[in-house]
């Protein structure tokens, strides 16, 4: 991990060095002397708090610090809107178009159009299968999924669960990340199902990561299998939906639930013991990596990328920056606060204050 972090740091340092060098010239490297312009399309604001509270914030800070022009818009889970925003950005002369796709099909259409207009393209967080983006910036999402699986195993062991029935509440099927997360936690859970240590319970995807629908799906799972003893949930929003259903049955805290994103709500659920763990993805690092790459591309450079990801539909390796995530249990919630991702004021409200004090968030 050290080595990889170093590699990423070197790439970023090298990229910023080039950017600075170009910035010293009167020409910005685009040959036009104009300030680079970067467009970013975020997917929605309901499936995870991260897009508006973290990604938008950190990207804005990074672009402002670099002195580039930028336009960050949110498609609000509307594919038509997604395409309209992309068209506008291309018409407005962005040098680079960055997308978090809603699905690979519409993502590809937008990337193709950008490319045909000479606009550079980057997939942010979600890979567009067959999309042909020049770069991909994300986390190692299979490893993120493994953390969910390992976390659940630890939580079940702590509870001394015997032959627990494990339910899986997966992310949106059109999001390639949902598949990667599942590949990750299944790599941990499947051997346990196969050996009989765990019992495989209901296993369902939540269309478009819709948190409300997740609640309905999980309630049905509980009807079908009232003895569910552990839940691998693919993010904190889905986890919260499961926890709400468990609360109705007074099972919260008795059935470990995992998650991902370290949202304020997710961390609060961890603090009170209703959620066993979450995975913290330092979005600032992701946003910074994206900003550096986008700025280099806008300047017509060809930055090196430390990683690659295979796109099975495009049948190619996509040059990538893949960052590391961290598992968060009650005992280390403070790491997320110390990293500045959530403030004590946001997290330790009302009854959570006492819980924060218990785990050293002062
Ligand atoms: C992201 C997650 C997010 C989910 C729902 C995934 O692609 O990696 O962080 O929770 O989408 O928005």
Automatic annotation (TrEMBL):
<keyword id="KW-0732">Signal</keyword>
<feature type="domain" description="Periplasmic binding protein">
    <location>
        <begin position="38"/>
        <end position="301"/>
    </location>
</feature>
<dbReference type="InterPro" id="IPR050555">
    <property type="entry name" value="Bact_Solute-Bind_Prot2"/>
</dbReference>
<dbReference type="InterPro" id="IPR028082">
    <property type="entry name" value="Peripla_BP_I"/>
</dbReference>
<dbReference type="GO" id="GO:0030288">
    <property type="term" value="C:outer membrane-bounded periplasmic space"/>
</dbReference>
<dbReference type="InterPro" id="IPR025997">
    <property type="entry name" value="SBP_2_dom"/>
</dbReference>
<dbReference type="Pfam" id="PF13407">
    <property type="entry name" value="Peripla_BP_4"/>
</dbReference>
<protein>
    <submittedName>
        <fullName>Substrate-binding domain-containing protein</fullName>
    </submittedName>
</protein>
<dbReference type="GO" id="GO:0030246">
    <property type="term" value="F:carbohydrate binding"/>
</dbReference>
<feature type="signal peptide">
    <location>
        <begin position="1"/>
        <end position="21"/>
    </location>
</feature>
